[in-house]
Amino acid sequence: TPAGLWNFLPQGPEITLADGQRLLWRFNQAQTPRVHGKLPHPTRLRHITADKNIAIPNWQQLLYAQVWPGIDLLFYWKNGQIAHDWLVAPYANPHNIRWSISGAHGQLTNSGTIALQTQSGVWTLQAPHSWQQHPDNSLPSAFTTQPLENGLQIAFQLTDYDPSLPLVIDPTVVFSSFFGGTGNDGIRRLVSPTSGAIFIAGNTLSADFPVTPNALNVSLANHDAFVAQLTADGSATAWVTYIGGSGVDVVQDMVMDDNHLYLTGRTESNDFPVTDNSTLNGSSDAFLLKLSLDGQTIRYARVIGGSSHQDLDNDIVDVEGAYAIDVNGTQLVIAGTTRSADFPVTANAQQSQSAGGYDGFIARWNNSDNNESLEYASYLGGSLDDSLRAVVLTESLILLAGASNSTDFPITTAQVHHDSATPGAFDITLTHLELTSGEIQMAQYIGGQGNDTPTTLLLDNDGNTLLGGTTQSRDFPVSENAMQTEHGGASDAFILRFTGTSGTGRSRGRIY
User: Fold this and answer.
1) Please, what's the b/e burial string for 452-484 (b: 16 or more CB within 10 A of its CB; e: otherwise)?
2) Mind listing the pLDDT tens digit for each residue in 398-434?
3) Domain residue spans of the chain
């Protein structure tokens, strides 16, 4: 299993992790339970040698019966993990349940889970779910722990249960593993379809990154992006590949549709694996790449950018490249930052020239086949520095979130607070473009006296606009019903919600 190889011994299970580390369960002041299988598994197993042909019992559940008087422990398979329930008979005492897990340092977290730090990852017991008569009838319950030299002793704290009824206590085991090589590795985006697979994209400096043998690209060239598919339970990789050329390549965002993954970021590689005749114009350009879900085929890849590149001494406007991508049917959009006066805008651009400094850019392609055509590309910014950091496509709009220290960003409304009295400070920009024409439908500032930066933009199930990011502003415009109304210090997170996609209707508002 993802949590290791389980060996069910009478004195308690033993779990051997992938690196050989062992975790030992032991029942404290317990009886000697009888361990037996329940519910025969439909799959039949046999051990066949030259002189033997032996049937091997195969069960769907395994029961430790009478660990303490009236208390059983049931193990079973659930959602790709081994789950277990403590089964307490009427009038048995659940406070007799005390067991230890040794072999790794453990602690009770603030969220009520138990986390054991192993060499392979974090082995977690989620906070217990206790119930009587029906799983939906949850009862108050929690772990209590006592530290051991190399582990924890664990018990349960229970209140308000009926001792005349059976009681079930269900703490789920979850294993979180490390993923990477010996260099610096980081995940930028994770997406998961309804089928349950997990796709991740990120960046690596590891020459020993765990790429699969049949990968599209098996060798690290410099600083490369990577893409991987994990199984639904996270226990194994279906495939892992590097993406990039001989220079620095950085993936910033990834989305998917039913058949493909779409990645964007920036590249400094003259040999980035493009499928058209696009070439690197500056020392850093944006890239767009469409990848099959099996990781084997680049449907198309191209770079887009101008001839300029320059680093700024801040972490809000960085280097030329794309930061965000979204796909909706036949429309595909990337958004990012450029300092180039010759960024390749289209004839129908809303803003055909750079206004100065760094500008945001947006580019839209027709995604109807594998010969995508660029239908719209434009600058978006003022005379100082502007960056676009997040994008969402609807049936009729392109929603953009960015950061700007320009006082002349092309806003259409001043409804939300903007502090122009702090030179150099960045405020959030929220912009809506009409999908086909690219015309600005709404644009506004959001922020206070410090630097305010968006990181995430999305629509909820009701069609409301949600915006998240970070703020250094003590006067960030929080709403009266905010969970936290005061700045905590340095840089705080925020979440903002607008009613609908108009960008003007304030709802449950801003929360640090």
Assistant:
1) bbbbebeeeeeebbebbbbbbbeebbbeeebee
2) 999 999 999 899 998 755 555 554 556 899 999 999 9
3) 4-170, 180-258+265-299, 305-511
